[in-house]
Amino acid sequence: MTDSVAPARKHRPDWAVLGIAFFLAALAAVIGWDAEHLNSAVAAYSRVGAAAFPLAIAGALAVLAVFTALSAFRSRSEAREPLEFTPLAYIIAGLVLQIVLLNSLGFSIATGLLFALTARGFGGKPLWLTIPIGIALCFVLYVIFSQGLQLSLPQGPLERLI
Amino acid sequence: MDSLEPLMQGLLVALQPINLLYALIGVTLGTAVGVLPGIGPALTVALLLPVTFKLDPAGSLIMFAGIYYGGMYGGSTSSILLNTPGESASMITALEGNRMARAGRGGPALATAAIGSFVAGLIATLALAFLAPLVVDIALSFGPAEYFALMVLAFTTVSSAFGSSALRGLSSLFVGLSLGLIGIDLQTGQSRLAFGVPDLLDGVEVTTAAVAMFALGETLYIAAMGSRMSETIEPVRGSLWMTRLDWARSWKPWLRGTLLGFPIGALPAGGAEIPTFLSYSMEKQLSKHKEEFGKGAIEGVAGPEAANNASAAGTLVPLLTLGLPTSATAAMMLAGFQQYGLNPGPLLFTTNPDLVWGLVASLFIANAMLLVLNLPLIGLWVRLLAIPRPWLYGGILVFATLGTLGANPSQFELGMLLVLGFLGFLMRHFDYPIAPVIIGLILGPLAEQQLRRALSISQGDPAALVESGLAIGIYVVCAIVLLLPLALRVLVKRKTPVSPPAQ
């Protein structure tokens, strides 16, 4: 909680919380700017046009941004768990690879790579082992879901075999 | 009230072999997912939404309800044996249950949790069946102004009940409401916040957002914690069965937990967290074995577990009768209804009585199945706890992207998944609750619709929003909801030595 009885000493602002306040303010600005461009005359029959609700949300976000910024100065910096970036990088790389390769190599290979890189991020077995396992697993899923549930998943060289 | 007759009709629907099968799949999946640390029932429903939209609505909703109940059962297993409560509502169970497991009494702890959940689920589902028609009768007289007030109430409830502070809850909520703005405004046909991107004109897909925030965000968060999250599984030693003394000490806490959980879940005034905390402090006050609390008192497992399950049934009251989700899982079930073009609310009881009552009746069946699945098969579920995390999370992400692609096979949708997943990760890291985002995204457009409807009836006079006594009453409740959890937290904190479970 932010308003705990803190000893009266000088706090440095919590920069992360200030960043969140900035994000909220930016979101408010974008929504407000977008709403200003809506032509409310289109809906003359309805007194409340398309812009009213977004403007209300933008206003609320602006207020929240102010309170968040205030809380950044009021509270002691919270001790957050330090992050490990290597596992994060593996997983995000897997997701980006999947997006890039999805249409050319198909669902099984792209998603199999995601599986292997995620497992790697969690410190799993080496990639030469997990990539084939991942691709095989995703191919089985592809068969089940495209044949059984008629989902249309992107096809690649592997999928065209069946 | 004439609940009995439609309930019997519903039972006929629920007892159809295919629906029994869906219920069985649901409770099995729900238990499995509840047992697995880190993934909850909301995520499971989110993952299954896109892959079920070609199935029969009644069947898949029955399955979703089974997942909801099953997740509650399974969650207690991992709390007791692993001391990693997946949600704040099962924190208390971990507190006493894990101590019991360490003392070699894991079996009775699991048993009292499972039987307590069964008793609570049974009573609370009955209460749901009898309360729902009453609420529907009242709800039929609601106009747009009242509905808007109710949605404001739901917004207030989710943002103050989830997470550690109302400021963070409200920030999450408004981020969700902003996401809900994206797309074409249905009344004027203008595009909002789409920035000329054609894929954004249809708005943000609810399932993509939910999968991104719950699955991807959580996975990234756990990954970023690195190897610090090592866990020890307590083996179930000794007898699984409760002794005569265990029974004698358990049955009253079950009933009291149910009495606390259902009304608070149904109101809705604060989800499952508050009733479990209240139940714990109540049992501690009433127990003849006060000295055992903190060291593995069976009452401290029986009461909160019952309260937890009863409040799950309670949340179905506002969901089914008013279309108001008050928990993350309820929000995903609302999305499930919406994907079949069904809108939960009073009208659904007259237009689709078979579906609604079939769903309610199936809860009884799911509950009975869960008791059978959980007690004798506990050894099987415990083995799930031992799945290596690389395989587990690799599999979760495969299913997450499969679900997203199933809803909309495009690279853009996967990009959304990545962006929102990263947002979910950041929110998790900075301790912002996720559920209000999803509820804001789902309910925001509905709230706007009701607001504009109310204001166009009144020719733009905003006083129409607070004209009826009912609407004023609801806004008063909103104010209470914002303040009550605060008061309760202070109360609970003073009475219980709730220290976070030992790491």
Characterization of the model:
The complex is a heterodimer of chains A (162) and B (503). Chain A has 162 residues and is an all-alpha fold. Chain A has 4 helices and no strands. Chain A has helices at residues 15-36, 52-74, 85-121, 127-148. Chain A is flat and about 55 Å long. Chain B has 503 residues and is mainly alpha-helical. Chain B has one domain (4-147, 204-418). Helix content of chain B is 72%, strand content 1%. Chain B is built from 20 helices and 2 strands. Chain B starts with a helix and ends in an 8-residue tail after the last helix. Chains A and B meet through helix 1, helix 2, helix 3 and helix 4 of A and helix 8, helix 9, helix 17, helix 18 and helix 19 of B.
Question: Which SSEs are present, and which pair or pack?
Answer:
The complex is a heterodimer of chains A (162) and B (503).
Chain A: H1 15-36, H2 52-74, H3 85-121, H4 127-148
Helix pairs in contact in A: 1-2, 3-4
Chain B: H1 4-14, H2 17-35, H3 41-51, H4 57-82, H5 91-102, H6 106-139, H7 144-161, H8 166-181, E1 183-184, E2 191-192, H9 206-225, H10 244-266, H11 273-286, H12 299-322, H13 328-339, H14 346-351, H15 353-374, H16 378-384, H17 389-407, H18 411-429, H19 435-457, H20 469-495
Antiparallel strand pairs in B: 1-2
Helix pairs in contact in B: 1-15, 2-4, 2-15, 3-4, 3-9, 3-13, 3-17, 4-5, 4-6, 4-12, 4-13, 4-15, 5-6, 5-12, 6-10, 6-12, 6-15, 7-8, 7-19, 7-20, 8-19, 9-17, 9-18, 10-11, 10-12, 11-12, 11-20, 13-19
What is the tally of beta strands of chain A? 0
Largest interface: A-B, 74 and 62 residues
Helix content of chain A: 55-70%
Oligomeric status of the shown chains? Answer: heterodimer
Euclidean distance between termini CA atoms of chain A: 57 Å
Q: Tell me about the biggest sheet of chain A? A: none
How many domain regions of chain B?
A: 1
> How are strands sequenced across the largest beta sheet of chain B?
1-2
Task: Please tell me the overall pLDDT of chain A.
Answer: 82
**Protein structure class of chain A:** mainly alpha
